[in-house]
Structure formats: structure tokens, C-alpha cells
Amino acid sequence: MRKINVAVVGASGMVGGELLELLESRRFPVGEFYPFNSGKKPASVFFRGKKYACAAPSFGSLKRAGIVFFVSTDEVAGKFAPRLAAAGTWCIDDSSRFRLEPGVPLVIPEVNGAELKPVKKLIAGPNCTLTGAAVALAGIHRKFRVTELRLATYQAVSGAGRAAMGRLEEELKAHFKKAAAPKLKDGKFPRPIAFNLFPQVGGFDAEGHSVEENKVEAELKKIWGDKKIRISSTAVRVPVLRGHSLAVWFKLARPCSEAELKKELLRTPGLKFFAKPEDYPTPLENGLRTKIVYAGRLRRAKTAANEFQLWIVSDNLYKGAALNSVQIAERIAGL
Ligand SMILES: NC(=O)c1ccc[n+]([C@@H]2O[C@H](COP(=O)([O-])OP(=O)(O)OC[C@H]3O[C@@H](n4cnc5c(N)ncnc54)[C@H](OP(=O)(O)O)[C@@H]3O)[C@@H](O)[C@H]2O)c1
């Protein structure tokens, strides 16, 4: 395969680190490699055994790449990606800046990979929370049509970046040293996270829904190409380091049996479904550097006819971010 020069904006971050490791382990045909960070503090990364210093990005420095991965902030993606894409550079953005922009494909390759087209050079990867549901229920939605979806999310701290992971570790250390919990000065979380959880991921809108809950709804509708489906969620941050879990309730347009759903789940691409109730996945066992989504505990809900429940776990940093981006790059490399 022909080599492609690759830039990673946010190479020193949580997702950036995973992305570099995946480009290497999956033998993506990287030619020249250009890592970037904010430039505010010195940072270096290792790639294919070589140490690279990160620098602040500029249009000229990014233009040298054939593919630019944006794993930094909405602002940085907004500043560079549209201009680069217009100039013919593939841009794969993991921030939320362009996810809902009309004309920008929001892609999970095994769900809607057909959205990838040579003329659409700017591609967005979805929020890490909905990825599990989008993959796990894709086949069921296609075949039986999900009309309503309710979710309770149990989101790992790494979903909020490296500093947030450090925050949990700091609070835990203080607890075991019997020291006072550190002050919430960095603004990463609204409440203490060690031995706690809170139903807030992002700020709240006028109706009281959080940013994360609104993202789950809007992005899932876009990925499944279905504006009619009704989605409501409660997003909860939990003291898990890595791996997001979801409890979902989904209503179907027509009656169907549990056996029919099991059959569909067992053949859904990118999903490992555990049919035995006691074989359910957990973030510690199934959310750490795992390349697929896991689901279990399928059962008929007691609240309505044609309503079922499922438990879903996925790695927020892999399938929820870095791996999904690399899979997009693998597809576009072949276009
Ligand atoms: N964590 C997840 O589970 C997850 C999942 C899906 C999507 N995402 C998205 O992926 C992106 C990265 O998240 P993360 O968790 O990896 O965050 P992170 O650990 O905080 O890393 C952020 C990275 O962006 C860089 N950066 C910040 N400002 C920059 C600027 N002005 N110019 C260039 N680089 C800059 C940082 O460099 P410095 O160290 O120099 O500041 C760092 O390398 C975010 O948009 C996030 O929403 C994250």
C-alpha cells in the first residue's frame, strides 16, 4: 500500500497516545510523521522507536500531511480542518466541532462506513458514549426499527482526558493517606469522583439536559440516519478509569421474540454478544484496549410491549475514539 504522511494534532493527549500505538500496531502505512500539541509546554512522543518533539500546529505544517488526525479541542479542529479539507487533505476529527455539521459524515465504519466518499475530506468520529449503542443496536435497528431508546450511562473518567484520570488517582491517594481531598480547582469535575458518582457530564441546557445527553441523542440520530427515533438518557460519571458502560431500554416498531434479537446481535459487525445472562461484560474486563463492543443481559423489559433491555460496554479510548479514527483512515486509504 502507498505510504501516507500523517499528522496528529493532540499527539501528547490520552486519545493521541492510543492513536499512535494503533497506527503502529495495525501497520498503517505512515510515511512522514508529524506530532503536534498546544506548544504551551514541551512534549515528546515515541513513534516506531523514534522520539519526536511536539510543536504547535500551523496550516503550513499540517498541509505536509495526507491525513491529519485531530484529537485535541473543538477550537483547534475548527481553526484548521475546513481549510485543510478544502485544500485536499483528509481530516479525521475526534472533537465534537463538526459532528452535527450538515455535509460532514459522522462515521463508525462498521455501522455507516458507506458515508465515506473521496469528495468528503473532513470526517467526524462520534462521541465515545453513544458508540457502544450505535454499534450494538445497529443490526436490530436495521431489521426491527428501534422507535424509542432510553439509556443510563456509566462513564469512565478517561472520557474527560488525561487530567481527569489524574484527578481520580489524586483523590484516591488522598483518601488512603487520610488526607483532605484535594480541592476541585482544575474544574475537570463538578463533584468529588473517588468513591462517588454524579449525573453530570458537561453543562446543562434550559430544560436540564446535559451536553453529553444531547450529544448522545443528536449524534445517534445522525449515524443511524433516523430523525424520528426518540432518545432520552441520563449520563453519569463513575470512578472507573477506562471503559464506558450503558444500560439501554429499546422499543421496537413491531413484535419480535428474544430469540430473533439474539440471532441479530450474534451477527452484528463489531459486536461480541454474550447470550448467557451471567456472562455480561464489565469495563475492567472488556473496556481496556478492546477493539469491539460487548453486550449482554438481553431481556424483555417489564414496562412495555416490544421493549427490551441490554447492557453494553466499550473502550471509550479505542472504539470510542482512537481505534474508530484509525479504522476510518484504513478505509479512506483504500478509496
Ligand atoms: N477521552 C475520550 O474518551 C474521548 C473519546 C472521544 C473523543 N474524544 C475527543 O478527543 C479529543 C482529545 O481528547 P483527550 O481525552 O485525548 O484529551 P487530553 O488528554 O486532554 O489531550 C488533549 C490534547 O490536545 C492538545 N491540545 C490542546 N490544545 C491544543 C492546541 N491549541 N493546539 C494543538 N494541540 C492542543 C493537548 O496538548 P497539550 O498537552 O500541549 O495541552 C493534548 O495533546 C477531544 O476533542 C475529546 O473530546 C475523547
Summarize the structure in words.
The protein is α/β, with parallel strands linked by helices. It folds into two domains: 4-126 and 321-333, Rossmann fold, CATH 3.40.50.720; 131-316, Dihydrodipicolinate Reductase, domain 2. Helices cover 32% and strands 23% of the residues. It contains eleven helices and 13 strands. The strands form three sheets. A six-stranded mixed β-sheet has the order 9-8-10-13-12-11. Strands 2-1-5-6-7 form a five-stranded parallel β-sheet, sandwiched between helices. Helix 1 crosses helix 11 (318-333) and helix 5 runs parallel beside helix 8. The radius of gyration is 20 Å and the shape is globular. Residues 9-10, 12-16, 36-38, 40-41, 43, 56-57, 71-73, 76, 94-95, 128, 158-159, 161-163, 316-317, 320-321 line the site of NADP nicotinamide-adenine-dinucleotide phosphate (NAP).
